[in-house]
Write a structure and sequence with these properties.
The chain has 128 residues and is an alpha/beta fold. The protein has a single domain, classed as Alpha-Beta Plaits (2-Layer Sandwich). Helix content is 36%, strand content 20%. It has 4 helices and 5 strands. It has a 5-stranded mixed beta sheet, with helices on one face. It starts with a helix and ends in a 7-residue tail after the last strand.
Length: 128
């Protein structure tokens, strides 16, 4: 697949955006960090699109960054610190994205701040 095609491929349609905003607005707001895989332009574009959606839904504490990860990350992950103290908004955000066909993987990461969540944007699934 050509790079330009891959960069333009993973996007949220207008219908998905409308549903997602409707589902995200009532969710309690908490801090979110969105990290796109370093060197992947498509992941960065998708991270910015996701941040814009969260801000339109009322989130104020949304930060975007780039990162390097050991092992491959396909699709996107929602990470939180502790299985016993999962932020409610993290699970609700996961359900909202799942409802429009973007199924996140849930993962524990002790480096995530307590009460916060991170969204890791990896390579697009099936991008080879």
């Amino acid at each position: 697949m050509k790079v330009k095609e891959r960069i333009e491929k993973r996007a949220i349609s207008d219908a998905q955006r409308t549903r997602l905003l409707q589902d995200l607005k009532p969710i309690p707001k908490g801090p979110i960090k969105i990290i796109a895989v370093l060197g992947d332009e498509e992941a960065g574009k998708f991270a910015r699109e996701m941040a814009d959606l969260l801000k339109k839904a009322g989130w104020i504490d949304v930060h975007i960054g780039r990162g390097v990860f050991s092992g491959g990350i396909d699709g996107f992950e929602i990470r939180f610190r502790d299985r016993e103290k999962v932020p409610v908004f993290a699970l609700q955000i996961a359900r909202a994205f799942d409802s429009i066909g973007f199924e996140p993987t849930l993962a524990l990461d002790p480096s995530v701040a307590e009460g916060a969540m991170e969204i890791i944007i990896g390579l697009e699934p099936d991008s080879g």
